Amino acid sequence: ERLREEVRDLQARLGITMLFVTHGQDEALSIADRIVVMDRGQVQQVDRPDRLYRAPETPFVAGFIGTMNLIAGEVKAGRFLAEGFAFSASIPDGPALLAVRPEAVAVEPGQGPARLHRATDFGSHVVLEIDLPDGVRIKALRNAVPAISQGAPVTLTARSWQLFRQDRVVLQCDPQPEIAHA
Fold first, then answer.
1. Is this model's pTM higher than 0.90 or not?
2. pLDDT for 181
3. For a designed S-S bond to 105, which of 17, 77, 140, 173 qualifies (C-beta 3.0 to 4.6 A apart)?
């Protein structure tokens, strides 16, 4: 971590352009002003670190940067439907892939088809593992251990998300403000 800070400080002090090649996401996100994400020699997205995280343009970038829940579903009559998730989606009917970060998944006791598999308390945060009826397990983050017992049904809400179709984002909901840049 200190070396990353030193490299970033050196670049800023000298005012030079640096090309830094790494496979480490933490390094790239903490050092770079712009990141090029590649898959099999093809550029997937070039953007600021915060945009790569909050607005991935392809399912590869969504799954590569940070932790992402990827859930297959379908749009029918203006609604995205998947096991555990349903919301308005103003795109044509057909299959779609939902991408939602663990910190954007709200979990509450309820009558939903999803069930709490496990809650792991890491002190600073709690990771909830949620089983969807189709066998997919997703993750959600909370600040405290919920008053939900293991195996109990839960209701899920996605506060921000992307929908992908044919490897491109077709719809996005991100109520979080963007990070201001000079």
1. no
2. 39
3. 140
